[in-house]
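FORM 12-B: Structure-to-Sequence Request
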């Protein structure tokens, strides 16, 4: 799939912007603080309705404005879809072919994106919540029901936490209500665990070989971790272990007034030759590991949803040495739309520049560069 048009109104430092993109490689070049990342971010928001920058939701609309919007035309095999995200101070509305889509979860399955950016290292170095957010976003784009299960799980979790707090204060003491919530929670958890397992099984089966080709003889593995001692992720196993944990841990949960076990506490870790990368690896190794993770994901997208996602590469070339830069390019699929930002065309191979559409970004305006 590819985005053929992008239109912004009052988004970050763009008052008004209209662009026609190439279905191949697009390069946005400009000095610092001119609006390169903002363009990539707008495409990310158009796809997923969320900012790619952590905690940045409130700054998407241009300062001094009450509303902003991002719209685009997505070409997906023979289909053409018009997507739009309208942002206002207190709400967000999404449209598909001019029709309002009331549930965001029904919207985000249309446009697939994978972002390679400066914050990628958070996937290894950040906190578990960063990783869970990342994993949820990625899996939501792959398996349509996933996000619904996560939303339902989170609602039940919220009720359960409120009830645990009441039990903690001794205000109610009907344990049957907790049991009903537990059952509902476990039903959704089974699904969430199984989708996560599917996702990590695919990544694990491919990432080692890819990393070895790119980085020599090191063995990279990625492991999904849960706090229920689940090993095989069969439905029966998940149900048994989750309910046992809830029974055994009931007193502790009431004492702390919060739910301590389940997929909302999952994490995943990268290991290089069996050592946890977060502690042992160099920054360059960590970056390559996340890049390999995302390259593996491109294959997973292709096999699962039968399309290549749109790749957003935010200034990552400048940080890689020439050898790794070329390796990365070699492993990108050929028939994929890529949107790259850079401060200097010198960071990009000549043969790539020659086949790319180039845009010059300057203080919230963009001009197509014609030779
Ligand atoms: N809501 C907003 N309203 C107006 N301007 C904004 C808003 N949010 C961010 N900006 C401005 O957008 C400018 C460009 O940001 P952006 O991150 O896209 O730059 P960049 O070209 O990627 O720079 P770099 O090369 O340093 O990464 C910043 O100077 C910032 O002040
Ligand atoms: Mg930037």
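FORM 12-B RESPONSE
SEQUENCE OUT:
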């Amino acid at each position: 799939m590819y985005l053929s048009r992008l239109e912004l109104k009052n988004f970050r430092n763009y008052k008004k912007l209209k662009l026609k993109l190439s279905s191949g490689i697009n390069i946005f070049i400009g000095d610092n603080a001119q609006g390169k990342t903002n363009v990539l971010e707008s495409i990310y928001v158009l796809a997923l309705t969320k900012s790619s920058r952590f905690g940045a939701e409130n700054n998407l609309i241009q300062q001094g404005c009450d509303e902003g919007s991002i719209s685009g035309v997505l070409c997906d095999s023979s289909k053409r879809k018009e997507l739009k995200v309208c942002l206002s101070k207190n709400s967000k509305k999404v449209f598909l072919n001019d029709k309002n889509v009331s549930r965001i979860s029904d919207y985000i399955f249309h446009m697939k994106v994978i972002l390679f950016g400066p914050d990628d290292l958070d996937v290894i170095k950040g906190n578990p919540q960063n990783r869970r957010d990342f994993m949820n976003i990625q899996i939501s784009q792959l398996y349509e029901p996933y996000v619904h299960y996560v939303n339902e799980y989170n609602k039940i979790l919220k009720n359960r936490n409120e009830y645990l707090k009441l039990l903690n204060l001794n205000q109610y003491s009907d344990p049957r209500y907790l049991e009903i919530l537990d059952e509902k929670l476990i039903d959704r958890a089974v699904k969430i665990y199984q989708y996560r397992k599917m996702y990590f099984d695919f990544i694990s089966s491919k990432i080692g070989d890819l990393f070895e080709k790119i980085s020599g003889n090191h063995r990279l593995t990625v492991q999904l971790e849960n706090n229920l001692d689940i090993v095989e992720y069969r439905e029966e196993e998940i149900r048994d272990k989750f309910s046992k944990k809830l029974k055994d841990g009931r007193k502790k949960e009431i004492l702390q007034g919060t739910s301590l076990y389940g997929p909302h506490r999952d994490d995943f870790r990268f290991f290089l030759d069996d050592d946890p990368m977060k502690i042992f690896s160099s920054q360059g190794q960590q970056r390559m590991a996340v890049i390999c993770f995302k390259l593996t994901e491109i294959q997973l997208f292709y096999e699962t949803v039968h399309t290549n996602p749109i790749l957003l590469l935010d200034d990552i070339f400048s940080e890689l040495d020439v050898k790794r830069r070329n390796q990365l390019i070699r492993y990108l699929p050929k028939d994929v739309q890529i949107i790259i930002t850079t401060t200097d065309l010198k960071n990009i191979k000549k043969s790539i520049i020659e086949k790319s559409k180039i845009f010059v970004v300057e203080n919230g305006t963009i001009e197509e560069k014609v030779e």
